[in-house]
Amino acid sequence: MKQINNWSALHFLASLGAGGMVVTFFMYFLFWVPHPGRPIPVYADWFSHIQTASTGKQAMMLLGLAGIFFFAWLHFKWLFLNFTQYRIFKANGGVKKIIGTNAHTQLMAMPLTYAMSLNICFILSAIFIPGLWNVVEWLFPISIVVFTIIGVWASRIYLDFFSLVLQSGSFDHTANNSLSQMLPSFAFSMVGVGLAAPAAMSQNTVVIGISYLLSIFFTTGGVIPRADQIDYRHE
Known about the structure:
Helices cover 68% and strands 0% of the residues. The chain has 235 residues and is an all-alpha fold. Helix 5 (109-128) packs antiparallel against helix 6, helix 5 (109-128) runs parallel beside helix 7 (183-201) and helix 6 (136-168) packs antiparallel against helix 7 (183-201). The model has no long low-confidence stretch (mean pLDDT 87).
């Protein structure tokens, strides 16, 4: 595969947007489908409800299922495409060229999108896999570990950027004409939200405690000063 001209890590945001649409359609199910005893609707809930619902509601539920499946497919299609492009970009020295520059924070789009991918996997599993909720307590620790790994990855990217521009004063405020410097906040917030899910849904106090503390830690990272708010220029 050839490298796309002018490709940058910001292209991962196309995959992120498709993932956001999956969450949107899933949110409809929270209001359409009764799910007594569970914080979210799962396969058993919508499958039993659709059999007794009115024709109009059945059509809306089928549309919701189609929306979840379609945008999940787009999400992973664009995720794999951009992952391939990133490997080519890195092999051609593209990553080295942006290290320490304003564009360095564009790399935060990757952990941001991968955190969304984990959320999409959870939604797809809950909606389309029968009986998953019976083993969900085993899945929460796995989710915590994976989200923490993504959070550490995001932290390393941002701390590398922060230390380089702090040392060299290489951040160009005059070229800061986009919202890309908010990507670190979005990435840490996404990880924090993902880590909050086990705390909200688990019945295990240890899982709840660990999930809660890690969620607070990474969510706090979303409110730290951004690179464009600090003057790095040396006198």
